[in-house]
Design goal:
The structure holds two protein chains of two kinds. Chain A is of the alpha+beta class. Chain A has nine helices and 16 strands. Chain B is an alpha/beta fold. Chain B has a single domain, classed as Beta Polymerase, domain 2, CATH 3.30.460. Classes of the chains: A alpha+beta, B alpha/beta.
């Protein structure tokens, strides 16, 4: 492909090819402080290609694919090319990663112990992780937490944090502009803006930690908190995993251990400040 | 760049020792695109490969093992569903190779479950499968009528709980195609794999794979099908194969497949001009895993339809599909 870049995020290496310069240039800027792995052997190939020959030039339209792809993936406009590249990498992980149990969850670490937060899109888990990452925690990832099948440690996958709609203002207020990506308006999920994790999150992206607390955050009501039973946790985590079935028995064993060892709480919160206060309180209770 | 890199690695795994990082990236992307990554992983087992490649190949072998396990379980479920109406399950393609432990099955990607049943039992088979939890995938009346009137198989069915597809074939090629392989003879000579599961005889396995690759298909996924043929040819008696191919009306196709398998995956063969075109189509893949040689690929797509249907019917079919928004890739 005409433009390309190789990126390493946590344990995974991606070779990203694009028919256009724009998405690659944006990635280069935002991933500038990640390890330089140009020319490395990649775990996955991502391709941003025109949906048809004419769509390279006229009203450019991106088809996101690669080693793993979805035939009916919605085309995206070139203006959202950065988002397309991020989605392309997520797609490879979701469909192709086999070396850890992949949980659709954000995670942050303090003193070697990890807080895992899982929930549907819109639950606030990304925003909360981004905020904690600016307040003394190490951000490990906003999208995927990787559960090691042997040690049961959580490993980081600190890609760019994807902030949506109202979360953009909240985070942009606390983070220097150099760490913010371009505003991508009117995507399928509303406005999106990417944030570069702090330098420590990138420098320590090979370093995992043992999970100490699992939260099911939910933005929009409360404040309220309830414990979550092991059966419910297990079922919700299997649903939050894209490769639980593919990994078979080792995934069942690892998830069983995780559920037995890690306390879980559901927290409902009306604001980011309330959520941070709740996290601090629950964290000190279980410590 | 073409998929020559991939076929060289499959033919002679030792040649991968000369690859640099860019070469490995190309090889892996091509192998994934052609759904040969599992096969490649098994071929490279025991070879010295770069550190970064080892987990990629290990993952591919694990995936293949899981697919084989799932495929054999699906076959067993179909056996249980069809046993009450007295139909034995004759497995075709990937599931048969995996169930029988054939070399063609090592690392092979397995998609749907393909089984062969007598044409006069096809409705009974569908009813029995529906009773056991399968359901029709497509609700489109045009597609349904099309399959039933012209095709060699029922429209695909999917299991409601396990989400796995089954293709119920009653013959080998579409009813509209010019060669008409003798499906009844294939069924009569099927061989037992294990309790209740059968596969075609060694010669018929080759004939079936060749019919799909050369007498029917647009050569999508052709490198994988040709790899199957290369492996399956090792089990046949060549004279028996010739006689069998003649009986099925596909003798020239089988001879061409033997030439192509030797040229691409073996010691080489003298190729005709037509063979060279097919080879160029089969190798149309670049180091990013993208299809190349678009005009040639499109020509084979058109040809595959031409072979299936008389011209007027083809025109009507393409117009109907176009209106429904279908476009060739």
């Amino acid at each position: 492909m005409r433009h390309s870049l190789t990126l390493r995020i946590g344990p995974a290496t991606f070779r990203i090819g694009s028919a256009w310069a724009l998405p690659i240039d944006q990635l280069k800027r935002l991933y500038a402080d990640y390890p330089d792995v140009e020319g490395a052997i990649a775990d996955f190939t991502v391709r941003l290609q025109p949906t048809s020959a004419i769509r390279r030039w006229v009203r450019p339209s991106i088809f996101i694919t690669g080693d793993h792809g979805l035939a009916d993936a919605a085309p995206m406009s070139l203006a959202h090319g950065l988002l397309a590249a991020e989605m392309g990498m997520n797609l490879q992980m979701a469909l192709g990663w086999r070396r850890h149990l992949l949980l659709h969850a954000s995670s942050v670490e303090k003193d070697g112990r990890v807080l895992v937060m899982t929930g549907e899109s819109g639950s606030g888990k990304s925003t909360l992780a981004a905020q904690l990452g600016e307040r003394g925690w190490r951000l490990m990832g906003d999208e995927f937490a990787l559960l090691d099948l042997d040690s049961c440690a959580i490993l980081p996958f600190p890609r760019l944090v994807s902030l949506k709609n109202k979360a953009i203002e909240v985070i942009a207020g606390e983070v220097p502009g150099a760490r913010m990506g371009p505003l991508l308006g009117a995507t399928a999920k509303g406005d999106i803006r990417h944030m570069v994790p702090r330098a420590d999150a990138v420098a320590r992206m090979g370093e995992g930690g043992m999970p100490a607390l699992l939260l099911f955050p939910r933005f929009g009501s409360g404040p309220a908190e309830r414990p979550v039973g092991q059966g419910e946790v297990f079922m919700r985590l299997t649903q939050a995993s894209t490769n639980y079935v593919a990994l078979g028995e080792p995934a069942f064993a690892a998830l069983t251990r995780f559920v037995a060892q890690v306390p879980a709480r559901a927290i409902d919160f009306p604001s980011g400040e309330a959520a941070i206060a709740m996290v601090d309180r629950v964290w000190s209770e279980i410590a | 760049m073409s998929a020559a890199l991939l076929v060289m690695a499959l033919r002679d795994p030792a040649t991968t020792a000369a690859l640099d990082a860019a070469g490995w990236n190309s090889l892996i992307a091509m192998a994934r695109a052609e759904r040969l990554i599992g096969t490649l992983a098994f071929r490279l087992d025991g070879q010295a490969v770069p550190e970064a490649v080892r987990p990629i190949l290990a993952d591919a072998r694990e995936d293949a093992a899981r697919e084989a396990r799932q495929a054999i379980w699906e076959a067993d479920r179909a056996r249980a569903a069809l046993a009450p109406i007295g139909l034995p399950v004759i497995l075709l393609k990937g599931t048969a190779y995996a169930a029988a432990g054939l070399p063609a099955g090592r690392g092979r990607f397995i998609g749907d479950l393909d089984i062969l049943v007598p044409r006069d039992r096809i409705d009974a088979a569908a009813d029995a499968l529906i009773a056991a939890g399968w359901e029709w995938v497509k609700e489109d009346p045009y597609d349904d009528a099309y399959y039933r009137r012209w095709m060699h198989e029922l429209p695909p069915m999917i299991h409601t709980e396990r989400d796995r597809m089954i293709d119920v074939h009653h013959t080998v090629l579409p009813l509209t195609a010019r060669p008409t392989p003798d499906a009844a003879a294939m069924m009569a000579d099927a061989v037992l794999i294990t309790d209740g599961l059968y596969m075609l005889s060694a010669e018929d396995r080759v004939c079936h794979a060749v019919a799909h690759l050369l007498a029917d298909g647009d050569l999508q996924g052709g490198l994988r099908n040709l790899w199957d043929i290369r492996c399956l040819l090792a089990d046949v008696d060549l004279q028996a194969l010739e006689a069998r191919a003649a009986r099925h009306g596909i003798a020239p196709h089988v001879r061409q497949a033997q030439r192509l398998a030797a040229a691409i995956y073996g010691a080489g063969a003298r190729l005709t001009l037509w063979d060279r075109l097919v080879r160029a189509r089969l190798l149309a893949r670049n180091g990013w895993g993208q299809e190349t040689r678009k005009l040639l690929v499109f020509a084979f797509f058109v040809r595959s339809h031409w072979l299936r249907m008389p011209p007027l019917m083809l025109a009507r079919h393409l117009l109907t599909k176009w209106r429904k928004g279908h476009r060739p890739q």
